[in-house]
Structures are given as C-alpha cells and as structure tokens.
C-alpha cells in the first residue's frame, strides 16, 4: 500500500516536465517545410509525373480520413464544416492532379494515325 504523504506529493507534481507540444509542433512544421523544399527542388523533370501520381494517391488517403472524421462528428458544428471542407479540398486536389498528370503523359504518346493515312517508310 502506498503511504498517503507520497500520494499527496505525487499529485502536486507537474503533469509534464518536457517541452510545450505546441512549440514542438511548430519546430517540426518548420523543419519539414525546409526538408520538403529541398527535396522538391532536387527532383528531376523525368520523375515529376510519377511522383505527382503518387502524391495524388496519398491525397486520396486524406479523403478517406476526412470522411471517417465526418462520420464520427456529424453534429452540424464547426468540426463538421471543417471536415466537409477537407473532403472538398482533397477531392479537388486529387482530380486536378490526375488531370495534370494525364496531360503531361500525353506529351510522351505517339500521335494516333488517321484513317487512310499511309505509313512513310
């Protein structure tokens, strides 16, 4: 059994002795921004299209997460509005990204032959 003075001493102890979570979040955001900028600027143009397709697939995961959040908090408040906005923004991002990717890939396709056109040899 734990003595009562020890319980009283522990209850007065501060809950967290580490850094403020908000400050840690800001530091992580700033570092991720710098790393992301450096990585993006170093991508060669030949890899841009496949990476864009991959990032569009990741944005699809954002839609799933926003839909799950929307299903959990369907109370009509601010959180519901933000979840709907997240679904709309992520959907626009995915559709627009795939349209741009498709347009970029069309540059690498051979032109289609028209009817009656002969092949030059």
Shape: flat
Sheet-strand content, in percent, reads under 5%
Structural class: mainly alpha
Radius of gyration: 26 Å
Order of helices and strands: HHHH
Q: How much helicity do the residues have?
A: over 70%
Low-confidence stretches: none
**End-to-end separation:** 95 Å
Question: What is the makeup of the main sheet?
Answer: none
What's the total number of strands? 0
Task: Please describe what this structure looks like.
Helix 3 (45-72) packs antiparallel against helix 4 (78-106). The chain is mainly alpha-helical and 121 residues long. The chain has four helices and no strands. The protein has a domain at 45-106.
Summary keywords:
121 residues; mainly alpha; 4 helices
Provide the fold topology.
Elements lengths: L3 H8 L9 H21 L3 H28 L5 H29 L15
Helix pairs in contact: 3-4
Brief account:
The chain is mostly helical. It is 71% helix and 0% strand. The protein has a domain at 45-106.
